[in-house]
Structures are given as structure tokens and as C-alpha cells.
What does this fold into?
Amino acid sequence: MLPYFNRTGTYIVVIGGLLINLILALEFSYLGFFSFLFQGLPAFFRELTFKKLLGLLFSPFSKLKKTPQTKIVTYQNQPLAEVEPPVGVEPSEIEYEEGEPEDAETMAEENVPEENVEEVYYETEPEDLPPLPPEDVPPAQGAQAIEYMEDDPASELEESIEAQSIHEDPVIVEPSAQARVKKKKNSRLNFDYVRPRGNFKLPTLNLLADSEIHEEIEIDRETLLQNSKILEQKLKDFNVEGRVVEVRPGPVITVYEFEPAAGVKVSRIVNLADDLSLALSALSVRIVAPIPGKSVVGIELPNDNRQLVKLKEILLNNEFKSLKYRLPLALGKSISGEPLIADLARMPHLLVAGATGSGKSVFINSLICSFLFRYTPDQLRFLMIDPKMLELSMYDKIPHLLLPVVTDPKKAAQALKWAVLEMEKRYTIMSRLSVRNIDSYNKKIEDTPKEELEALFAQEIENDEMDPFELPDQLPYVVIVIDELADLMMVASKEVELSIARLTQMARAAGIHLLVATQRPSVDVLTGLIKANFPARISFQTSTKVDSRTILDSMGAEKLLGGGDMLFLKPGISRLIRIHGAYVSDQEIKDIVSYLREQGEPEYNEEILSSKKEEGDVEFQEEDDGLYEEAVNLVSKMKYASISMIQRRLRIGYNRAARMIEQMEAEGLVGPADGAKPREVLIHNPD
It folds into this structure.
């Protein structure tokens, strides 16, 4: 270093390096040094006496007297004959537990390994020593050395004690009493309390099989506790601290409620679904983060032994028999085993989607059977559309049908147009009586004398341009069931889309409801216009996350188990409800249909599928050709054609304006419909 520094600089660098090494090697503290310099040193000189000064002068190499310590050495999990004191420990300083022989000091003159020694240092006498581990503790725990030095804080002692405490097992919540179906001797097996009109008799629940009805959910506590420990350990491996606080077993899946520690993000737990599935050897793991209303994360695991949910279990429940539901649907059971009932009148339409074999068609059958057990043909009618010609054909010729099951997509589009016209007709009738919905109308029809109603309607028809119609006694509910929407959209997408959109927007008060199912939940089938008007949706197992987003606007359906496992998006609630659908066999459906066919022949409405073109021509010729000519002149003048424009200008109803537009299209005066855009006018001078 001399070539770079002079002699003085070299000395300074070398001495400075030595001082730094000494500071790093020794336990030197600047805080302690200054504390001793400003506090300890003055106190030392104040307490310095002549005797202490002499002791310092005559013993320059002696150390300052420290606070007396007591060193206790105990031996655990080691026979006394083999115990040896460590080096530097006198036999007189050894304490032995009760029950040891008096000559133990002579036995401790040999050496003993360090792992069998527990040393505890105290500044004062050992009055409150920590208890020794019991003798039956395994060597891995009992032989562990614990040292509490005089500078250890009390908080570290408490944390050490908590770390060695026994882990509490999670609480296993048994299913509630509502989830258990117990068949009583006097249990009512029919729904005669709904007051069916006429001689029609509703089917009884004896038509449904009693086999495999589970009175309660089987609980294997050992398996549940073992899975809880595996979940905690696996999450701990990924630095996710927490514990399972509750376990809720169900008929198909079990929910483990995991309470994360403070500072753990929920998103970290959601991303570990595949890792947890691998650790538990499960088919799939679905994570609900967090469970609404709780500070826990729900981890749903499928059961090894899956219980079948029968339709009869749901129909026997008092909730289904309640009169507060106008159109009750037996959906199935919740994850905790409680029956779930929904009201179609409040939804008011339901969209069902899922992959092939996921249980979608069986679910539709269970919904149809829910209505057949409770309503007569005078109270509810079905309009069934089945392009596949397989699923709904077994319901053919039952008295509840408005017409035979429609299998032709073109006829199905025409049937949906009839439903739109029926909706408008019902609104016209209800407006005459100043009622708001079908229930109020039926009640008023029942309470008002028929002669008074006929006189009222005769006066209204004379003063209005609406077509006369026959006043019905009561209006039944109409449920339109479409098993495969994709087939209809391939043949007549525009007509079907517009008809479904109008029905879903307006048909609720008229008592017309839709049950639409599809196995191809793509955007070209479930268009934005259709999906926006179905607030209630159910998704069964899907093949991809994209399909789940298309149906539910969120992922999760791809994690379902299949075979009736579904997610329900309830109107007004953003969270998804997991349901296990009710199962009804083909033989049970055949028995129900056979019973209904014995009640009488169906009364079909043949006008639904009749040709409207000839009827329209006759109506125009018989009604008022001058008004039609006025509509043609108006369209030619305005350079566009639309039903709403003719309604406003000529002050006529929707049905009549629609027939005029159809007549103009048939004569080549206007172009075809183009969605919501006005029709193109093909002529400039009607003459």
C-alpha cells in the first residue's frame, strides 16, 4: 500500500480496517456504548466505594461481578443409569424429577448427549419454572431443548407456548331438519287443495318411485377431518396460512369453510383450485371466495359416495305445497341438502344451458312434472317445441297441450308468432277490465256476473276499432317449452329472436312464460337480445370457461360434476347458487302421462299453425279496403314502412297494422323485415 499512500496514510487505513473487523466480529453496539457512556459510567462512579476501588486495583484481570444465575439441567427421555452431566457442570447443580433414586448424583458422573439436555437460565431463583414435558411425549418433542435467556421478551414466550398448543378440529355442521325427508303415514300425496275445476283429477305422488330416497345425509367424520388437515397443509405449502373452521357435508359435495390468516389475499386461494384437486385426488374443486355474509372462503369437494336426489323428495316438502308460489318449480337440493323451490311467475322466464349429458333434459322433465302434479288443463297449458323429436315427444296427447309437440322449426317460429298475438290479445282484454295481471283478471272474472261482463265488452267493441273476440271464462297460464334453441336459430333466426324478445319483455303480466334450453351456448345462439331478457339462468356443466361466461357472465360452470349439478343465477342476486337437480326416470314420466291421458282427450287450438296469408287477405277485403289503401299511400309518401308508424298515423291497433305490413310485403310493395330497421319501400307511386 506504500506505493499508493504515504506511511501515515497506510497506518490509518490498516488501523481503521482492524477496528471495523473487531466491531463486526464482536457483539458491539453503539446504542449500548453511548448508553453506558452517559448513564452507566456516571452511575458506576456514584456507587464506587473505597472497597470496590481496592478490589479493582488488586484484581485488575478479574471480571465485574454479574447478577447471580441459577443453571438448572434436566434430563428427559433418558434412563437415569445412562445420564451424564455435560462438561463443566457439577453433579451438585443437577435437579432430578420426583421418583428418581437418591444416588442419582453418582449416576450423573458420565457424559450425556446435548440433544437430551434442557437448560434454562434465570436471573433469580427458579420459583416459576415451565413444566417439564410428560414422560409419554415422543422423543422428537420431549427431547427438544428450550432456552429462555435473560434478555428474551415475554411476547416470544407466549408465541412459543401458542405454537405448541393443540390444533382445534373444525366444526362439522350436520344438515338441518328440513333436509331430511321422513315419510309419515298421513302424508298427503296429492295436491287437491289447489281446487281443480271440473272432473279432472290431479295425479298423485304414488306414481313416483320410493326407491333410493335418503332420509339423511351420511357423514364420515374421519374422512372430513382428514381432508381438512390436507387442505390446511397444502395451503400452508403455498404460504397461505389459515385453518378450516367448519365443514358442511351435503348429498353430492361437501363445503370446507377456510378462514385465512390476516394479510392473505383471497385471489391467492382462488388460483390454487387445481393444486388442491391434485392433493385431494378430487374430480374437481370449486372455490367460492368469499362466502357471502361470512369471513371465510368456501372450498367445495365432491363426495366419494354421491346420493341421488329424487323428484318425490322435493314434491313432498311443505315448501312446494305452499300456496305462495303461483308456478312452483322443483329445482332440487342445495349443497347442504335443503330442498329448493323457485317461482316461475317471478322469474318470469328461465334459460337453461349445458353440455350434452350434463342433465339438462332430465331437469326440464322434472320442471314439467312439477306443473303436471299441481295444475289442471284449465289452469295451465303447454306449448312444447322439440326440434330433436326425442325429449318432449313422450308428453304428446296429454290434456295440457295447446297443440301436438312441434318438431318442425318453421312451424315453431309460427307458433311463437301466435304466442305474441295471444299476449297482445290478453293485454287488450285485461285493459277492458282495468286489471294489471292474469291473477287479478281471473279473480275479477270469477267474482263478476257474466251478463255484466258481456254488456261491458259489447259497448267497448262498438266504440273501438279493435276486432271482436269471445270473452273467455278464465285465462290459463301458458308455458312455452323449447328444448333446443340452436336448431330454431339455424332455420329462422330473425323471426325466432324477435318473437322471443317480445315475449320475454312483455308476456309476464299476460301469464305467458318461457322455458328455453340449449346445449350450444354460443353467442350466435344466445344473442345479446335474448340473454338480456332472461334474468334467471341455469348452467349445467360446460366444456370451456367461455361457455360458462356466455351463460352466467362468470366462470365456474366448467368445474361442475355433471349429472344434474348446476349453477343458478337468481334474479336480483349477483351470486351463483349451486343446486343438485331432481331426477325423474323415463318410467315415472310414462306413468304420469298414462294417468293424464285417461282423464280425457286434449283440446288443440288448430289456429296456431294455420296459414295467416289467406286469412289476412280475406280480412282486408271484408274489413275496409279504403283504410288499407290509405296505409299504402302513407308508406309511399314517408319512403319507409313500419308497424309503429302505421299505428300512430292511422290510429289502429298493433294486430291490424301488422297485417297491413304483411299484405304489402306479399304484394311486393315493401321489402322484408331487417331487424329493428324500417322496411324498404319498393314503389314510389301506388297507382
Observations:
- The mean pLDDT is 77.
- The CA atoms of residues 333 and 684 lie 64 Å apart.
